[in-house]
Design brief:
Elements lengths: L2 H79 L8 H19 L4 H18 L4 H28 L2
Helix pairs in contact: 1-2, 1-4, 2-3, 3-4
Length: about 160
């Protein structure tokens, strides 16, 4: 083979190698970019969950406190009047309504299924206590929701710690 043929073969091989190198580099850059986007999205989701869990911790504490105050107000009212189900003081009733809504929204944002179920059970128990027809049922639900609150708080703390 003469020099011109070798020159042509060398040019074709060199161009092919250059094109292949460029394609591989572009593909790797694309994959790195995709991985970065996925990692950014996952980090944003973790941050959102962390912020939601922190907000829920505070709102849940306030909700349980207000619900306990409502139970005590009902109990006191029952002792004074022998009638269960007297209306709560206006400020407490409004506070419970607002905290109930906030807590419900935050619970639905939780991605951990076990925690969301625990919190939903807790909220149901609190609602049952507030809607009880007599002091015996209310007392039973009160004891139940205090117990569930302790368990849910532990689970919430565990999930929160694992999110860091």
């Amino acid at each position: 083979m003469d020099a011109m043929t070798w020159g042509f073969v060398g040019t074709v091989v060199g161009a092919t190698a250059s094109i292949a190198t460029t394609a591989i580099t572009n593909w790797n850059t694309f994959k790195i970019s995709q991985n970065t986007k996925i990692q950014d999205r996952e980090e944003r989701a973790r941050v959102f969950q962390r912020e939601t869990l922190l907000e829920l911790q505070l709102e849940l504490r306030n909700y349980i406190r207000a619900s306990s105050l409502a139970y005590r107000a009902d109990t006191k009212s029952f002792k004074d009047t022998d009638y269960w189900g007297v209306a709560l003081p206006e400020g407490l009733s409004d506070q419970l309504l607002e905290l109930n809504g906030k807590t419900s929204i935050l619970i639905q944002r939780i991605s951990n299924d076990d925690l969301r179920k625990n919190l939903s059970d807790l909220k149901s128990s609190v609602t049952n206590c507030q809607m009880a027809k007599n002091e015996y049922d209310a007392g039973a639900y009160y004891i139940e929701f205090i117990d569930l609150y302790g368990k849910s708080s532990e689970k919430l703390g565990e999930v929160l710690r694992n999110s860091y």
